[in-house]
Specification:
Layout: H1 15-22, H2 25-37, E1 44-45, H3 55-68, E2 71-76, E3 79-84, H4 86-92, H5 96-106, H6 108-111
Antiparallel strand pairs: 1-3, 2-3
Helix pairs in contact: 2-3, 2-5
Length: 123
C-alpha cells in the first residue's frame, strides 16, 4: 500500500471545487502562507501551520486542499511536505492563484491570515 496521497490530475482540477476550498479562512491562510514562502522554500511541513489550528483540524484542511488540486503533498518518512500546484493551477485558470493571493494580502490583517505565522512577511 502506497503512502503517497492521491492528487487529481491537472485536467481534473475544477474551478468550483477550488473556489469552494478557498472560501474557508483556514484553507485560505494555508494557501497564503505557502505562496508567501515560495521564494524561501517551495515546500512547508505540517508543523509550519500549527499556529493556524490543531493537528487534526489541519489534517482535514490539508486533505481538502489536496483533493481539490490546490496543493501537493509529499511524504518523506514521518513528515509531510506541502507545496502549491502553481503550474497546474496557472495552466487551468491563468491568473487565479495570483489574484487570490494578492486579494488575501490586502485583507491579511482583517482575515487574521498572519496569526502566529512569523515566517510570513506581508508586503
Amino acid at each position: 500500500m502506497s503512502r503517497t496521497p492521491l492528487h487529481p490530475a491537472r485536467e481534473q482540477i475544477e474551478l468550483p471545487m477550488v473556489l469552494d476550498c478557498l472560501s474557508d479562512p483556514i484553507r485560505l491562510a494555508i494557501v497564503y502562507q505557502l505562496a508567501r514562502q515560495e521564494h524561501v522554500s517551495s515546500e512547508l511541513c505540517c508543523g509550519d501551520f500549527y499556529a493556524l489550528s490543531g493537528k487534526s483540524n489541519l489534517a482535514y484542511h490539508f486533505a481538502k486542499l489536496r483533493e481539490c488540486g490546490l496543493m501537493q503533498t509529499r511524504v518523506a518518512g514521518t513528515n509531510r511536505f506541502m507545496r502549491l500546484r502553481r503550474e497546474d493551477l496557472e495552466a487551468r485558470f491563468p491568473g487565479l492563484l495570483d489574484a487570490v493571493i494578492n486579494s488575501a494580502a490586502k485583507d491579511a490583517d482583517r482575515l487574521q491570515l498572519l496569526s502566529g505565522c512569523d515566517a510570513v512577511d506581508a508586503d
